[in-house]
Write a structure and sequence with these properties.
Layout (H helix, E strand, L loop, with lengths): L12 H10 L7 H10 L5 H14 L2 E4 L2 E4 L9 H20 L5 E3 L6 E4 L10 H7 L3 E2 L7 E4 L4 H14 L7 H8 L5 H16 L10 E2 L11 E3 L10 E8 L9 H10 L3 E7 L11 E4 L1 H8 L34
Parallel strand pairs: 9-10
Antiparallel strand pairs: 1-2, 3-4, 4-6, 5-6, 7-8, 8-9, 10-11
Helix pairs in contact: 1-2, 1-4, 2-3, 4-6, 7-8
């Protein structure tokens, strides 16, 4: 089976189904399956060979020693095209995750819909994008349309992929008891501010399909450089509003750590700073001051004239230097 060229692509769904039919219920060598495909005029040699490899990759054609056989069809008959459609959908979702192209999944024209950006789709060398169209997993208005509409019955699988990745962005969701504890009078200022910011985001995003994935991560990942994972709009699919929360009292001031500064500089427009006036938490309608791209706001522009001062210093011993004896007392100036 070395006559194949990946650039030639694979066969269409009816021809792929015919290959599966030929390999059911008796196993046969893949070379013989290729010959059967050629005899049935399913396509040229290269595409038939590619198709056999594709069916094995999808798991609908099972290798048994040196032979291959169609996977057992589901109860109710051998719906080969249905099997291929389900397998392509699963494999394609896996490829999106592995290749890091989940951004190809985008909100649709209505709240329950999704679209695929055709220019970001993986698996072109194996002919996966055309299969999405041929199997009805996605559709397009014309050959120049790069925004493909995901079939309604396939939307839940893509959403499950996104939800899993969103869940991996953080390690913890706040329970109701934890949320109430954060708002108690015994909670420290930082936690009270974080709880307020979380409640604000839940209200702002009411109706979002992934509302349960708006969450605090500050307890589980103190070095993340932010406190809260959220979504910028109701149509957002991935966490695209990364929030650092700062509470303040009588003086409007906050401490910004080196890690938080670095994360703000890295994420820029995705990073938000929420300034929460702790004296106004019980005031109806109060909203935190929300600053997008605080690196630009405070470091590059500083339009309000905020002042800053160093609060800590890092000391590093010189290379090859001999440290003093542990517990030794340094001489006082003038002593």
């Amino acid at each position: 089976m070395n006559a194949a060229r990946r650039a030639d692509g694979a066969l269409g769904p009816p021809q792929l189904a015919a290959l599966l039919e030929a390999a059911h219920p008796v196993a046969l060598p893949p070379e013989r399956l290729v010959r059967i495909g050629r005899a049935q005029r399913l396509g040229n040699l290269s595409r038939v060979v590619n198709s056999v490899s594709l069916l094995v990759e999808l798991g609908v054609l099972v290798e048994i020693g040196e032979e291959v056989a169609a996977a057992p069809p589901p109860k109710g008959g051998a719906d080969w095209e249905g099997m291929i459609r389900r397998a392509v959908l699963e494999r394609f979702c896996w490829m999106l995750e592995e290749a890091g192209f989940v951004s190809a999944i985008q909100p649709g024209d209505h709240p329950a819909g999704l679209r695929l950006d055709a220019l970001q789709l993986p698996g072109r060398d194996l002919g996966y994008p055309p299969l999405l169209l041929q199997l009805g997993i996605a559709s397009r208005a014309d050959m120049f349309d790069r925004s493909w509409v995901v079939a309604e019955d396939c939307v839940p699988r893509f959403l499950a992929l996104i939800m899993g990745l969103n869940q991996a962005d953080g390690h913890k969701r706040l329970t109701l008891d934890e949320f109430l504890a954060l708002q108690s009078n015994q909670a420290d200022a930082g936690r009270r501010a974080e709880a307020f910011a979380l409640a604000h985001e839940l209200r702002r995003l009411a109706g979002h399909r992934f509302l349960n994935q708006v969450r605090l991560i500050s307890d589980d990942n103190v070095g993340a450089g932010f406190d809260l994972l959220s979504f910028d709009k109701l149509g957002s699919l991935r966490h695209d509003r990364i929030i650092e929360v700062k509470g303040y009292g009588s003086t409007k001031a906050f401490h910004w750590s080196e890690g938080e500064l670095a994360k703000a500089r890295e994420l820029r427009d995705l990073y938000w700073l929420y300034l929460v006036d702790l004296s106004l938490l019980q005031v109806e309608g109060y909203e935190p001051e929300m600053i997008q791209d605080p690196w630009a706001y405070f470091i590059e522009q500083n339009p309000e004239g905020w002042s800053s001062e160093p609060q800590s210093y890092k000391f590093t011993a010189p290379e090859g230097g001999e440290p003093g004896a542990r517990g030794a007392t340094a001489p006082r100036a003038g002593g």
